[in-house]
Amino acid sequence: MVRKSKLFIMAALASLSLTSGEAMAHKLNFAFANCNYQVEIDENSNNAKLIAALPLTLTFEDYGSHERIAYLEDKLDIPASVSCNPVRGDFTYYVPWGNIAVFTKDFRTSQSLYRFGKLSEELLDAIANSGQETVTISVIE
């Protein structure tokens, strides 16, 4: 009987450690200029909407002096009630316009801006200098 109790407790603790604290992540690949860059984004319902839309081939353009943006053909169904205080390297989505935004500089808190995750310095620099080159974002299975 004691052995069964110990096994039950061990199984319960293992289950608890899988469900509390550590979120799963999706791995994305950004491919352009004959290079590949990997990024991890958290697994949640809004990020799942991006994952469902992948792969995407986008062309980024400068917007102001603080971000590069790329428009999606179809908007993602992310609630406009989100907000974000973007910093350099943030990979975001602006709900009203339906565009991806990569912040090259820190910016003010913005309503209707959703943060998918953060890009590495190497990827951020590559996107900042990508000109009109297309970027393909896909899921790494």
Question: How would you describe this structure to a colleague?
Answer:
- The protein is of the alpha+beta class.
- It contains 3 helices and 11 strands, in the order αββαββββββββαβ.
- It has helices at residues 2-19, 45-53, 121-128; strands spanning 25-32, 35-42, 56-59, 61-63, 67-71, 83-84, 90-94, 99-103, 110-111, 113-118, 134-139.
- The strands form 3 sheets. Strands 4-5-8-7-10 form a 5-stranded antiparallel beta sheet.
- A hairpin with a 4-residue loop joins β7 and β8 (99-103).
- The longest helix is centred in the N-terminal third of the chain and has 18 residues, at 2-19.
- It is globular.
- The N and C termini lie far apart (43 Å).
- 25% of the residues are buried.
- The model is unreliable at 2-21 (pLDDT under 50).
List the topology elements:
Blueprint: H1 2-19, E1 25-32, E2 35-42, H2 45-53, E3 56-59, E4 61-63, E5 67-71, E6 83-84, E7 90-94, E8 99-103, E9 110-111, E10 113-118, H3 121-128, E11 134-139
Antiparallel strand pairs: 1-2, 1-11, 3-11, 4-5, 5-8, 6-9, 7-8, 7-10
Helix count?
3
* Uncertain segments: 2-21
Alpha carbon gyration radius: 19 Å
Taking all residues together, what is the mean pLDDT?
87
Give the overall shape.
Answer: globular
The main sheet comes to: 5 strands, antiparallel
Distance between the termini: 43 Å
Index terms:
disordered N terminus; 141 residues; 4-stranded antiparallel β-sheet; alpha+beta; globular; 38% strand
What's this, in brief?
By secondary structure, the chain is α+β, with helices and mostly antiparallel strands. 25% of the residues lie in helices and 38% in strands.
